[in-house]
Amino acid sequence: MFKQLILKPEELTPLVDKALALGASYGEAAFHRVKGFQIILMNGSPITASYTLSEGVRVRVIAGGSLGFSSTDSLEKRDIITAVEKAVKHAKTTASIVSKGIEMSDERLGRARYEASARKDPEDHGGEDLFKLAVELYKSIDLSRYKVNINSFLLGLSYSIEEKSIATSDGGLIESRIPRLEVFYTITASSEGNRANRWQQIGGSGGLELIDELGVTQAIEDDLRSLELYLRTAKSPPRGRMDVVLGSEIVGLAMHESIGHPSEADRVLGREAAQAGLSYRRRIRPGEKIGSDLVTVIDDPTIPGSYGFYLYDDEAVPARPRYLILRGVLNEYLHNRETAAIMGTHSNGSARAEEWWSEPIIRMANTYMAPGDYSLEELIEDVKDGVYIKKYMEWNIDDYRWVARYVGFEAYKIKNGRLEEPVRNPALEVNTREFFSSIDAVGSDLRFYAGTCGKGEPAQGVPVWMGGPSIRLRGVVIK
Amino acid sequence: MTLWELAEASARILRKHFEEYEVIVGNEEEIMLKLANGEPSVTQSWNRYTITVYVAKNGKIFQTSLSSTSPGEVLEKLDTILATLTPSPLYAPLPEPTGQNYENTDDKIVEIVRSGDLSKVSEDLELDQAGNWAGTIRLAREERVLVNSNKASLHGEKTLFNGYMRVFADDESSGQWSWTSTMYRPDIAKKAIGAAARLAEECSGLPKRKIESGNYNVLLSPMVAGNLLEIVARSASGGAMLFGFSFFNKEDLEATVASEKLTLYDKPHDRELPGYSQFDDEGVATRDKPIIEKGVLKNILHNSKTAKLFGTKTTGNAGLLMPEPFNLDVAPGGLKDDEMLEALGDGLYITNNWYTRFQNYPEGLFSTVARDAVIIVEGGKPVGCAGRVRIADSMKRLLSNIEGVGATLWQIQWWEVSTPTRLPHILVSNARITSE
After folding, report:
1. What are the backbone dihedrals phi and psi of residue B384, each rounded to the nearest 5 degrees, phi first?
2. Fewest CB within 10 angstroms: A45, B279, B300, B431, which?
3. Are A336 and A362 spatial neighbours (Cβ–Cβ below 8 Å)?
4. What letters, b where the CB count within 10 A reaches 16 and e where it falls short, cover A175-195?
5. For the residues of A59-74, what is the DSSP string, one character each?
6. Domain spanning B3-200 has what CATH number?
7. What is the pTM of this model?
8. How many helices and strands (H and E) does chain A possess?
């Protein structure tokens, strides 16, 4: 829509040189721009449309073993130089009360330019196209097919283009461009004296073609059917210890919450203790068994078309798949260069910043459980008494990432290997070891779900995918 | 370029194309120290300019948010974009700009922010003596200018000093507390850190006990009550009701929605709290008002758009799209600090929480996870420290079961309480608790 100039990585090199001249032992500068267009419809009419442009320069340095960060959205040279000076000053000010100096791990840093491709690049399409697409999407849903009153249907469609240039004092030079598309909706409905709502976020990297490729219409229609079941026919669930089949939507979330977050090495080391918390991986170490042999969990930023796609992180480290659990055994952490240096290893390219104002911190990208070979029918047919939870609405987990709660939205009772009536709000509350250890069968139906993951202070939200197949858990408690 | 010059330059472009427009230009200078394991982990600072533009024509509306000091190219093209839209059911003419200019700053904060040097803060809070602390300390100066086609020409400037600290006695025993003010107040910061430290010590000295899931009387610290009451206040927004994010609806106005012990205000004119403002995002004068008074829902928060759809008037709570509270304030009750555990009798003292999520917004079904010290109380005495339990209940039920309100007020703002809130401890009977 609006094409602006970008500061190239080479143009940032003088800034890191300046930081070194001021006494820093490490310097990193980034130009970071996120721009996008969003349209929100309420019951089919546009309630608002907006264009956002957020761009600026951030500088991060180590001086005296202490870390300093400063950023500005003024692209005036004097303001950017002030940011460099401030970052060095911040670091020096606290250096005297830091007992163990911060260092960056040695890495083979990237010198590269890359971009995620889009067949219908958002930048080539105006707001008009997005508006038309949103209206067409809404009109493609035949609401009269569902026996519920739609109280409100909020449908948002947005695209963003993230452009970054990064330069580090030890030679990293990265330039990237990633377009993304996101659809989100909240449907509030009532029937039979009950009221409920369902929200969903769908997204990927790419262009407007993703509306079809990600199956948005089908997802909305499926959620309307779920609302109909929830409001009209669902009964109280069985409670107590039983076998539970979980759909891929919950499995994806559980991979994010129960192994992705706890594998972030900054949490393990206490750097996020006051915000997102700590991790059970402080006491259960790599090499220890956490789940059944069927469990392998991967976080992979390099999946083409994914919402969390990138090829180099914000410290210029090449991205690669990270194996968090390998056949039931806890494996690597997610590292940036600071935590890798502390633990005497290498970064696996997990540092990301949301925007120009954000320090790069350890983030997940696309976290998923590797699929097995069971069909959904096979997972269910071997359950005598249990529950199948296909979708959730409420979830949370404690700040050590040990006990999670997932409350079913679309769920069914299982009796003698067959699905029976829908049940409302079955609550699975389970600790992480029990969750992973109770898995005795893994489906082949791997699917990914988009999310915006929050962490840090100021809080940063970054796009991620969460994925998994359907799985079967033996003998867990439904409350 | 000053904020006025930036606002005027933007308005000049918009005037060419639109009869109805608004520009809000903001500048925020901010510095933040983050601590982990008792030491600084990073010091960060920001200097941000934001330009928020609203335009309307023939019932169509469009917004633009730019973190940029040269918005010309974008603003020139808004007319072309607007032409592609259809009228918005939310459209309402910009209201009369009744707001006033304001200044609520503390020179000490401005000096520290601009110096980029947190040595004084570090000294005042005795950070060199920190034990196993983790948290953040934040100081900022915020300035904004609002001009619009209704001849609004408003300026506001304020400062803030807030933060939170989590103190660990050991990996299983911690306390966390926060503070917030428009003034540089090391006294309240130290008091908050002291409260966190006392909870950590108390939990450390008590036997660790698991509790069974069931119904419990609970004493909610200001951290926990602040999180839940912020959700209550945001649910009282006309926008939240329209868009499906509320367990209230318009028929609840003047109805009893909580125990008569609860009175919750929105107080934009409270000079001590950082949400202070004399005008909202439509240039309308803000005013202090009860949201819930003695259990009755007294005000639904509106901007001109939601007010039009509800057939009423704005309450001066714009948000260009969503009406929002500025500062929250809970009227104190009679429970003194040393009486609270006794009033609780048998139950749980929940001192911090996070991850509050709803299963069903319209019916108010939610859960939230306790973190830090959860103190088991029997016969009014602490007897144990529990693990990470959940409150898994209905918000309506929880509000109705408020049995007592503390007398001592705390000023809270942190990760889980984004709206500055002054409130005491709150006692709730018969809350549904789940435990592993």
Report:
1. -170, 165
2. A45
3. yes
4. bbbbbbbbbbbbbbbbbeebb
5. EEEEETTEEEEEEES-
6. 3.30.2290.10
7. 0.97
8. 10, 24
List A130's β-bridge partners, or say none. none
Six-digit token string for A180: 């993304």
Out of A94, A152, A357, the one facing B243 most closely (by C-beta) is A152
**For residue A1, pLDDT beyond 60:** no
User: Contacts of residue A66 in chain B, CB cutoff 8 Å?
Assistant: 40, 43
Give per-residue pLDDT as tens, B261-316: 999 999 999 999 999 999 999 999 999 999 999 999 999 999 999 999 999 999 99
Cα gap A259→A255, rounded to integer Å: 5
Comparing CA positions, the residue from B46, B106, B22 lying closest to residue B279 is: B22
Count of Cβ atoms closer than 10 Å to residue B397 Cβ:
14
Looking at beta carbons, which residues of chain B come within 8 Å of A405? 367, 369, 390, 392, 434
Query: Domain locations in chain B?
Result: 3-200, 214-434
pLDDT at A5: 67
| B2 at A interface, C-beta within 8 A | no
Question: Which of B337, B343, B331, B347 is CA-nearest to residue B391?
Answer: B347
What the block records as the tokens of A78 is 């004097």
According to the model, what pLDDT value does residue A4 have? 62
pLDDT tens, residue by residue, A86-134: 999 999 999 988 888 999 999 999 999 999 999 999 888 877 888 999 9
DSSP string, B226-295: HHHHHHHHHHTBHHHHHHT--S--GGGTTSB-S-TT--EEE-TT-TTSTT--SB-TTSPBP--EEEEETT
Above 0.85 for ipTM, yes or no?
A: yes
Phi, psi angles (nearest 5°) of residue B129: -100, 5
Give residue limits of the domains in chain A.
9-232, 240-478
Neighbouring residues of B50: CB distance < 8 A, sequence distance ≥ 6: A73, B24, B25, B26, B27, B28, B65, B66, B67
Burial grade of A285 (CB within 10 A; 0-12, 13-18, 19 or more): exposed
Evaluate whether B159 touches B183 at the Cβ level (below 8 Å). yes
Q: Which pLDDT does position B74 carry in this prediction?
A: 80
Region A410-417: what's the mean pLDDT? Answer: 98
Contact, A356 vs A55, CB < 8 A? yes
**Cross-chain Cβ contact B371/A398 below 8 Å:** yes
- What are A170-208's pLDDT values in tens digits? 999 999 999 999 999 999 999 999 999 999 999 999 999
Indicate the Cα dihedral angle B276, B278, B281, B282, nearest 10°: 160
Tokens of A172: 């990293």
- CATH class of the A9-232 domain in this structure: alpha beta
DSSP three-state, residue B107:
helix
Phi–psi pair at A179, nearest 5 degrees: -85, 145
Q: How far apart are CA B187 and CA B274, in angstroms?
A: 17
Q: Are B116 and B45 in contact (CB under 8 A)?
A: yes
List strands edge to edge, sheet with B296-297. B296-297, B289-293, B264-266, B328-330, B417-423, B410-414
Phi, psi for B386 (deg, rounded to 5)? -95, 170
In one letter, which amino acid is A138? Y
Q: What angle do CA A165, A171, A173 make, to 5 degrees?
A: 20
DSSP letter for each residue of A170-236:
TS-EEEEEEEEEEEEEEEEEEETTEEEEEEEEEEEES-TTHHHHTTHHHHHHHHHHHHHHHHHT-BP
The ranges of chain B with pLDDT < 50 are: none
Tell me how far apart the alpha carbons of residues A16 and A25 are, in angstroms, rounded to a whole number.
10
Q: Which of chain B's residues have a Cβ under 8 Å away from the Cβ of A271?
A: 36-37, 41, 134
Measured in angstroms, the CA of B81 and the nearest CA of chain A are apart by 6
The pLDDT of A337-344, averaged and rounded, is: 98
pLDDT of residue A99: 86
Q: Which residue has the tokens 């983030």?
A: A363
Residues of chain A with C-beta less than 8 angstroms from the C-beta of B354: 277, 396, 399
- A313, amino acid identity: D
